[in-house]
Batch of 3 targets.
Target 1
Amino acid sequence: MTSIDTFQFVGRRVPFVKMHGCGNDYIFFNGFDVDIPNPGELARVLSDRHKGVGGDGLVLMLPSEVADAAMRMFNADGSEADNCGNALRCLGKYLYENGTFTTPNVKIETLSGIKDMEMTIVDGRVLAAKVNMGKAELAPEKIPVNLSGEAIIQRKVNITRQPYEITCVNMGNPHAVIFHHDIDHFDLETIGPMFEHANLFPERVNLEIAQMVSRNYLRMRIWERGTGETMACGTGACAAAVAAVQLGFCDKDTDIKVEVRGGILTINYTDEAVYMSGECIKVYEGVVKI
C-alpha cells in the first residue's frame, strides 16, 4: 500500500486549504508558493476519507502565462481531469481573498481551455462565482462516444441488462445524462461504474441521473469518472441542463436550477456558452507533512 512517506519530499510541511462548492470538496495547494511533485499520487493518498484529509480530489492553483491563474485537478483515483466548475469557483475565492487576484473578473487556464469567471464579493469575501464553462458540444466525436449521428439525444443503449436512454454532452469532459422518474432509488453505485468503464466511451464518462421537478428546475445525482458519486459536479450540472433543453424540459437563455445533493447550482445555456453560478466555501486550512 502506498503511504505518504513514499514521496520524495518526505518531511516537508505543506499548507493546504479544504474547500467545497455544493459539497463537491477538494484539497487545494497554492502552487504560486510551493512545488507539488507527483500530484496524481498525492491526490490518491490524501483524498482517502479515512486515512487522508478526505475529498473528491486535489487541486493545484498555479501561475499561468496566458491567464490570471491556472488550475490542475486530480480525481480521487489520481487521474487528471480536464475541468471542474466547483473547483474553479473555489480557486477564485482563495486567490482573491489571499490577494493574488485584485479584480472580481478573472481568467483561469484549464486543460479544456481558458474560463472566464465573475465573483460576487461582499466585504472582501467571495460568496459565489459565475463561470463561463464554454460551449456545449453534442457531436459524438466531441464527447467522445462510439455512436453515429449528429448528436446523441435520448439514444437507447444496452450497457447494462436494462436499456437506458442517454443524452451525451461534452462540457470540457464527457457526460452521459439519463432522465429517471426516481433518482433517489436509482442504483448509481452499480450502474455508474458500468457506464464509466463501458467500451462505448473511449475516455470513460461521467454519468448524470436527472429528474425534472418543474420547468427549468431539475434534480440530479452524479457518478464522476475517477471518483464515484459526489455531492455535486459543476460540469455535470451543465450537461444535465443542456440535455434537459435538448429534450424540451427546460428553456435556453434562461436560468435553470439544478439541485444536487450538496445544494443548488444555476445554469444558463446559450448558443455561445454555458454559464454556471454557485457558492464557494472554505472549510478549513491545515498543514500536511508529506
Note: Confidence is low (pLDDT under 50) at residues 1-9.
Target 2
Amino acid sequence: MKQLTAIVLTYNEAEQIEACVETLRFADRILVFDSYSNDDTVATARRSGAEVLQHSFVNYADQRNAALCAVEGETEWVLFVDADERVSADLAAEIQVKLSYSEYAAWRLPRHNYIFGKLTKWAGWYPDYQTRLLRLGRARYDPQRQVHEVAMLDGPVGTMDNPIIHYNYQNVAHFMDKQERYLRYDARMLFDMGTAPKLRNFFLQPLRQFHLRYVALKGYRDRWHGLRLSLFMAWYEYRKYRYLSQLHSSEGP
C-alpha cells in the first residue's frame, strides 16, 4: 500500500496540469481524476507521468468522494490538489512529516490566492483554509454541500503552516465565469432547502457581503484591488438571490 496519493480533479485543464503535476513528485502516486475533458488534459497528464481515471461529473462533493473510492485500499493518505494549485517544496516537506501523525483524520492547509496576478491576503482570501490532506477511511465529503465542499471527519483535524499556492482567477472574465457557476450551485442548495427569497434579501445581503469583505475582513488594506473584489462579491450575492427567485418562479409550487 502506498502512503500518499496526490489526486488532481480536472476538466479541460490542459494549460495547467503539467505544472501542477510537477509540484507533486514527492507523492508516492499522482492520480488525475478527470471529468471527461475534451481538450488535451488527459494526454498531457499522462505525458507528465500521472495516472488518469475518468468519472462523469455530478458535483464537486460527488467527484471528490468518487476519487476517494477509486483509491480505497491502495493508499493511506490522499492529498487533493486543484489543477490551478501548486505545492511548494516547504509544503511538500511539511506534508511528509504530517503523514506520521496517525491520530489525525485530516490536515487543513492555508492557501495563498493569486487573483488577477496579485497575492490577495485580505477580503477573506487568506488564510482560506482547505482541508485537503485526508486519511483514507476517516474522511468523506458532505453530499449536501455540492460546491465549497465540506469534509466530514472521523477524528481530529490539524493545521499546517505552509500555504498551498492557488492561481485561481487570471482576469475579470475568468472571475465572473466562476462566480456565476458558484452562485447557481449556492442558489440551488437554498432552493432545495426550501428557502424563498424575501424582498430585503436583494438589498441587505449584498450590503452585508460588501461590509464583510471590505470592512470586517479588511479588504480596504488591498486598496483598489480589495474594493473591486468586495464589490464583485456583493454583486454576486445579489445575483444569487435573483437566480433563487427565478428557480421559485420556474420550478416552485
Note: Helices lie at 17-22, 41-47, 60-70, 89-98, 172-192, 201-216, 223-251.
Target 3
Amino acid sequence: MKKVQFTETVLRDANQSLMATRMKFEDFKEILPTMDKAGYYSVECWGGATFDSCLRYLGEDPWERLRKIREAMPNTRLQMLLRGQNLLGYKHYHDDVVEKFVELSIKNGIDVIRIFDALNDFRNIKTALEATKKYGTDRTVASGCISYTQSPVHTVKKYVEMVKELKAMGFDTICFKDMAGTMSPFEAESLIKGVKDAIGDMPLVLHTHCTTGMAYMTLTKAVECGIDVIDTATSCFSNGTSQAATETMFYALQQYGVETGLNEKVMNEVNDFFKPVKQKYIDNGTINPKSMGTDSQALVYKVPGGMLSNMIANLKDMNALDRFDEALVEIPNVRKDLGYPPLVTPLSQMVGNQAVTNVLMGERYKQISNEIKNYFRGEYGIAPGEVSKELQTKILGEGGKPADCRDEDKKRTGEEFAKAKEALGELCETEEDMMSYICFPQQAEKFLKERKAKRENIAKYTIEEI
C-alpha cells in the first residue's frame, strides 16, 4: 500500500499566511498534547516569521515558546523553516552565527530543519546543512528545500539539476516549496516524475498554498506521481493564502487506499479546538478577508500567502489599502528587474516593499530600499536571471558589478557574539538571548528589558506580600 505522510502547519505557516504570524502560545498550548497523538510526520511550529513576530508583536521569547511545545509534544517531530545564511532574519550572517543558531535550535527541540535559500543559491545553505549534521540526533532530519517558481529561467531541467545537487550535498529529504501556490497539476506531474527519476527512493516533500485554488488538484496529482510528504493545515486554518486542509486530503487519499498514519478522531479534535481561535482573530480584525479568499491572479503575480498578508497589513497601517491592486501589478515588474528571484522570504518582502514604494511614490525606484541595494551588490547571492542593467547602474554606478557574498574572510569572525554580549550586558542571560539579539537587535533588546522589568515587579510584589 502506498504511504503519504502529512506535515501540519497550523502552528507556523498556516497562521503566518492568514494572520501574519500573530498567534500567541496561550492560544494553542492546551491542544498540543492532543496534536502529539495525531500521527503527523511532523508539526511545523517554528522558524519563518515566528521568531520576529514573537519578539516584535507577541512579547514572547521564541526559544521558550519552542521549549514549551517540545515539552508538550514529546512524540512528534517538530519542524522549522530556516532561510539558510539568512537564518530567520533579513541579511546574511557569518558562518559561526549560522552554526550556533542551528545548534541551539536542535538543543531546544527542533527535529526537522527545512533549509532553503531565496535565490536557490546552494552555497548559502551549505553551512546550515553541515551544522545540522554536526549537532543532530538520531531523529534529526536535514531537508533541502527548493524555492519553486515559474519564469523564463526556471525549467524542469533546471530543477532536476538542483535536486541532484542537494542530494550530493547530503540532505536527508528534498522539499519543493511552492510558496505562492502557483504549481499546477500538470507542472507537478512533469516535475515530480523528472525528479523521482533523478533521486530514486530519497523522500520528496511538497509544500504549496491554496492562494490560486490549485493546491488540492496539485497535491492529488503529486501523490499519484510519488510524493512522500505533503504540507497541510487543520481545516479551519486552511485555504485562502494558507495550505490545503489536512482532513480533506486525508479523506480523499483514504478512498484511494493511501496510508497516511493519521488518527481521524484526533485530527477532528484539533480542528474543533482551533475554530474559536480563528473566529477570535477574525472578530478583532487580525485575519483580513482578503487572506481567506482565492485569487487566481496570483498565477500571474507569483505572490506567496505570507507576502500577501504582510502587504495588506502594511498598506492598512499606512491608510493606503486602496492602492493594493496597483502594488500587486507592480510586483512582477520589480521581480523581472531583479532577475526573476522566487518570491520567498526575504526576497518576497523586499520585492513587495519596493513595489509598494514605487506605487506610493508615483515614480519607479525614486526611493530604493537598502535591501534591494544590497541585493544588487551581491550580498544575497547570485540572481537566477539577468537583472535590469538600468537599475544596476543606478545602484552601483556605471560598470558596477555585484561582489561575491561568500567572501572567505567574512566567514568566521566571532565579532557578532562579542558585540551582542557587550550591547546587552546583564540582560543577556543565555546563548539564546544573545542569538535573539544578533538576529533582531532592537526587538530583542526591547523584549529583554521588558522581561527584566516584569521579573523585578514580581519580586517587588512578592516581598510586599511577605
Note: The chain has 22 helices and eight strands.
